[in-house]
Amino acid sequence: MNFSVEGAKHRRLDVYLSEKFSATRSHVQKLIADGLITVDGVNVKASYKLTGDEEISIQEVDAAEVEYLPEDLPLDILYEDAEIIVVNKARGMTVHPAETVKHGTLVNALLYHCKDLSGINGVKRPGIVHRLDKDTSGVMVVAKTDAAHISLAEQIKDKVATRTYLAIVHGVLTDNIGIITGAIGRDKVDRKKMAIVPNGKPAVTEFKVLERFKDFTYVECKLQTGRTHQIRVHMTAIGHPLLGDTKYTTRKNPFDIHGQALHSHKLSLIHPTTGELMKFTAPLPEDMRSILKQLEGKG
Length: 299
What we know:
The protein has 299 residues and is an alpha+beta fold. It is built from 6 helices and 14 strands. The protein has 3 domains: 2-58, RNA-binding S4 domain (Structural Genomics Hypothetical 15.5 Kd Protein In mrcA-pckA Intergenic Region, Chain A, Roll), CATH 3.10.290; 63-158, 2-Layer Sandwich (Pseudouridine synthase), CATH 3.30.2350; 163-263, 2-Layer Sandwich (Pseudouridine synthase). The strands form 3 sheets. Strands 4, 5, 6, 7, 8, 11, 12, 13 and 14 form a 9-stranded mixed beta sheet that branches. A 3-stranded antiparallel beta sheet has the order 1-3-2. The model is unreliable at 61-66 (pLDDT under 50).
């Protein structure tokens, strides 16, 4: 894949590419080190400073040759064409392989189902433009071509694509609507957790109360930014952690749900090829519907 650099004068190559494609900087640096990314046909260092008029070439990855093999796993497909595939991810399914998880992921299932996925994020995350936590269910879009990946990544970055979540949180929220702000980065004590930190990345979450119960609240959350664990961190920060979220709260979970009660409910985007506005909805999963029925029954 070849493309021209725009508006990136004096910026580092690795920083520019990681932001453009929503990829980790370390992954981009590895691709550069492996000679898979060139600038004007020349291998350069990750620290190369762009002039703003170069052409970058990224060697595409053949998804059929990746280390992680296709697996015949259940997929709830909401929409599919030659450019994108939209799925309703099940709670408990990891999105992409990692060092400790190499099987049973959404990527494994996608490789079996559609064979061709965007290679921009490399062999471990083919097609993955944005992700959901393992124990978060719901709608997410995957790119089948590099062109679609670029378009979707830019839409998310520019807030053209919108994402709406449903959650059940501890405690009773007093405000009907609100906006939570707080820069998010790695927790200084526990590096496996995220937290609001002074040098973190800006993060903004909108919330709206849908229903109040005695000890819990059913809320809708909209992301203005897409930081790791953003809703989980922000709701915890205002004293209302997600039900079932063992990473961010020790509060008792009296219900049958494995993982946080968080569901990616709606996703809107512009189709990368047709320019059509598309809206997708994933119905609330059975575990969260059951909890809401129990809470309603308690008055």
